[in-house]
Structures
1.
Amino acid sequence: MIIDAKITNRPNSGDFKERIYDNESPWNSQAWTWVKFLEKDGGEWIGNFRGNGNSVALSAVRNEIVVLTSDYAFRINTNNGDVIEIEGRPLYKAVTISPDGTIVLADYYYISKTNESLKESQVIKSPIKMDMIEFKEWTGNILEFKCDEFLNENKKNILMELDSKTWEIKEKNKGSA
């Protein structure tokens, strides 16, 4: 069982067992991302994913990993490393997992969530139009993130919070959305 996953540099050939994660398409880039997986027994292996690496998140609750690249979003089963789902040409730039196992995704302008297919994610309403979303960290059920207010040069690097119990976004240290 996989217990950790991290984007890493390309390994030397033969240093690790490798598994290729790809999807045939004429639109594929020539870029690859390497993710190092750590097994419960201490074993390590590498997954080669098509596209430039954006983000990786592991959900122990769901027994899956989400790997985002420029070409695809991959959902991987932590028990065997098999693909659960591949979404082509995702707009997502970041992924994290809430404490209850919900997949939380961000593109440049929106944050969305899903418990099912990546294709069926639901946008979470925000009190401002967001741009350049960057996830920071979870504190309990609260995800802290930074963003700019879209088309407002005076509102950059705003600290925001997403409550994974109510699924509300608010500016940190302000009232509810």
2.
Amino acid sequence: MKNIFYMLIASLMLGGCYSNTIESFSTFTFQLPILINSTYVNRNVPSVAADFSNLYKYSDYKDNQDRIKKARLLQFNGWIDTLVLEGGQPFDPLGNDDIEFEYVSYKLIFAKPKYGNKFSQDPNDFEIDTSIEEFEIARLNNVKVKDFYRSPLHIVDIPPDMSEKISQQLISSPYFYIATEYSKLKGQAGDSYHFPLIDARIDITIRLEVELY
């Protein structure tokens, strides 16, 4: 009866999660998927741009924040959803468009509220927390756009030591930027290449362990 009781409590508290397991009678573990739309108009490469995320956006995090025991970053996934080339033509993955970046790098950079409103979803209400180190969570070399175009299959596991350091910060600082650096293109003529549109997706998975009492 007690087992069923605890399972019912967990299900009621954390309904709607992608996956969950009862690890013990005192904790409940579930995964929180974070999907970031990284859309930029008139972007030149090489360049770096940052997208903001605040975990208070997600009710599963906000409703259980006081009971979170661990918050571990598990995996990263990134892909390009729409790309418009210099000259205005859309990228054609089935055609002869041969676009390849030397690399694409993704860094997680923690933020802090400027004005004390930690629940705000406006990135202008936050700034980089320079007291916390930056983490390069993924670096993809020789990125052929054809392979990454609308293909969310390039999953990167976060190294355990880095995941542990990030975990220690996520509980107290659940707001961060994902800074995406696009290198120059292979064979690029000139200092920069202009994309009228880069519409990319970033998917990160966080595992939360919550105390039930």
3.
Amino acid sequence: MQVDFGGLEVIQDWGWTPIQLAEKVDQFRERTIKGMTPECFGDREFFGELMFENPDGWKIIYDENRTILGFWQLIPLTEEGFQMAVHGQICADRIEDRIVPKLMPGNWHNGYFYSLSICPRIRRSLVAFGFGGTIIKSLINLAKKEIYYDHLTVCFATRYSQALNRTVFRFDYCSDHPYIGKMYRGRLTEFLNRKLIKLSVGQNMRDLIRVYQNAPQPLSGMASGC
């Protein structure tokens, strides 16, 4: 099986519209995550346009048949939206323009990993490891535009993702998701300051640490605790 990583350029080469992309992502998430309810799927026009507008906010794994095998998406949230997320008061059907700010250079943002999923048969492969690297590269690209993330929240809905949190992210549990999984939160700046992460031999991780070390300090008083 031939697989690769891709983003907006690949989707445009395929001729997919924003709605088609959102539809294919929804189909992948439904295949991959057990227990998905209708509330776990947002407005396809909104999510498709969001991905086209923020190409550094998501990536896919795909095969030779253009089947999606992995998908992550990091969505900026307002303070109100972030608090809704960490307290288990938000699902895809409640994500809308009102709580999704524009990414502005020179600003720090709250981020919600709307999805962080990989097809079970490749979860423990080098492909999965490399897919994690696309998140790092995207954060570097954003930082070069002076767009930074600090407070992050994520819904871990599978045993695999919860194990990943215990071994890699080490985010704090906040609440149960309203329909599936559990909500966790952490700070990207603290994650990058961990000794194990700082000793990483990966060039991309070292580059990410460097650009964040040179960034202006994030504002205090934002994104208070769970």
4.
Amino acid sequence: MNKHRLLCAASAYIMHEFNNQTIERLRNTRFFKLILPPFSNFLRNNVQKEIEKDHAVIFAAYQAYDMRMPPGEDELRALLQQAQEIDRKFIRQAHMLPVSIHIPYEDIEDIRRERMRHLLENCYRLFLLWEQKPRLRKAVQTLFDRNQFNSFILRVLMLYVSETRILSNSIKLPHRLGFARDLVLHTITSAMQTVAAEVAAECTRIIYGRT
């Protein structure tokens, strides 16, 4: 398998695990019936949107590696523009849900840029190291020590949580859910933050083994 496709598959696995575990945690909340009907599809569509963006970032890192030119601001600007195209598709899908979504780019662009830069630069470094190592796991272990890798995955996920929280705040809920808006969004954010730490720890155990 092409190296960038393998990394995309690993990235998608992490994001799907994160989303599935978040939804499973929400099932155990007292507001399950309020939260999941309008939000489970929203969360699934939102994470798929993020996977598409991550794949674009990974491919940009691979192209930069192939040309032996470290990625910079030009790549980030192109990726941010591409992200808005993905957003438009997401909004069209969201019209089928009982919510109305407006994406506040002025509020999320700095977070989005930081997440993309973090992923872009580290994927570029990983591709360079991967030349010298036969397997992805060995390349990752060379690039990061155990704590650094955990912090890397956690930061990627927490920046996604921050962007999702801002996006969720822009959602217009049906009137019957309006009274519970703040509690619903707090519950979702809290679940995502807890799961982010758990998934980062799980990914670290996969790469480095149990301590």
